[in-house]
Design goal:
- The protein is 72% helix and 0% strand.
- It is mainly alpha-helical and 316 residues long.
- Helix 2 runs antiparallel to helix 3, helix 9 packs parallel to helix 12 and helix 11 packs antiparallel against helix 12.
- The N and C termini lie far apart (95 Å).
- The N terminus is likely disordered.
Length: 316
């Protein structure tokens, strides 16, 4: 397929799902996704070979997360996304809200920590460096809601309603950087809320729900703003190629509807994941308390029974 300049395809036929799903690999994302799958697979194999278990569900979630990125960036959806606001918005929403959730449910950091060998006393290997990063002040800052929520919001309004978006779309490197940014923002936003991996900022479950719903209304308002606009708002998509047979404003309205819908769907997925994690946490806590009671011979229960007996004796 013939591309001009930074990769924008100017002679695409009208969009259909079949055409959008045709293979058209972006080399950067193809290599990155395959590397991510290979490294995760190496970690799982390493654990299994030494007799440890790794939940199949985590592997499936991670694989689906990485494949969703490949699906967005290594098919003609990426080509159409350069000239159609609606298709670009699908890419943005999936890479920033669906892919991060699935990748985080795969617990890649936990797998890495379990798979990497320790460097030995007084030495720093990859595992030790990763632990230092996890406990660093930098990570505490970028995973705090005072940082993640404004970043999540700015990635919409500060990008699309300023010339920054047009500048990034003007080069191949800029487009790649923008998509990597979407993924990174999604990861740091959802990690403290529902990530399985250990992190520096991990509030209680009610606070996590509040963090989730703090950012979603701004997402919905962004979609509504695009849907209600009376003229195209993004320069890049103001003059779509005639071969597409689309009208810029109508396509922008569709993009707004996609953004609005994605403010609801991932919220429900994350909320369900949070409720399951909350329930599992309560069960683990109950088991720990039961084991503690078994170890001390039920001393707390005996003390309580003795207290009741003393009250009974005093009442006689």
């Amino acid at each position: 397929m013939d591309h001009s300049g930074h990769g924008m395809t100017m002679d695409l036929p009208p969009f259909t799902l079949g055409r959008g799903l045709e293979w058209s690999a972006d080399p950067f994302f193809l290599v990155a996704c395959l590397a991510g799958l290979a490294l995760y697979g190496w970690g799982v194999v390493r654990l299994v070979r030494r007799g440890d278990k790794w939940p199949v569900g985590r592997t499936v979630a991670y694989a689906l997360g990485v494949l969703s990125i490949m699906f967005m960036m290594c098919t003609q959806l990426n080509d159409y996304g350069m000239v159609m606001f609606s298709v670009h918005m699908v890419q943005h929403m999936v890479i920033s809200m669906v892919s991060p959730i699935l990748i985080l449910l795969g617990a890649p950091i936990t797998l890495t920590l379990r798979a990497l060998p320790t460097a030995g006393r007084g030495r720093r290997g990859p595992r030790e460096l990763l632990l230092m990063f996890l406990h660093s002040r930098y990570l505490r800052i970028i995973t705090h809601p005072a940082f993640t929520i404004p970043l999540f919001i700015a990635s919409l309004y500060g990008l699309y309603f300023t010339p920054i978006f047009d500048t990034l779309m003007g080069s191949k490197a800029g487009h790649i950087a923008m998509m990597v940014h979407f993924l990174a923002v999604g990861l740091v936003f959802f990690w403290p809320i529902m990530g399985v991996d250990p992190g520096p900022h991990r509030p209680g479950y009610l606070m996590r729900m509040l963090e989730l719903f703090a950012g979603m209304p701004f997402h919905a308002f962004f979609g509504i703003a695009l849907m209600m606009a009376s003229e195209p708002m993004v320069e890049t998509f103001k003059n779509p190629p005639a071969s597409l047979g689309i009208e810029a404003l109508s396509d922008q309205n569709t993009a707004g509807g996609i953004a609005w819908a994605f403010s609801e769907i991932p919220s429900v997925l994350v909320l369900v994941a949070l409720l399951f994690q909350w329930h599992a946490s309560d069960r683990r806590q109950a088991k720990r308390e039961d084991r503690a009671a078994d170890r001390d011979g039920g001393k707390e229960l005996e003390a309580y029974n003795a207290y009741l007996a003393s009250l009974n004796a005093q009442g006689r």
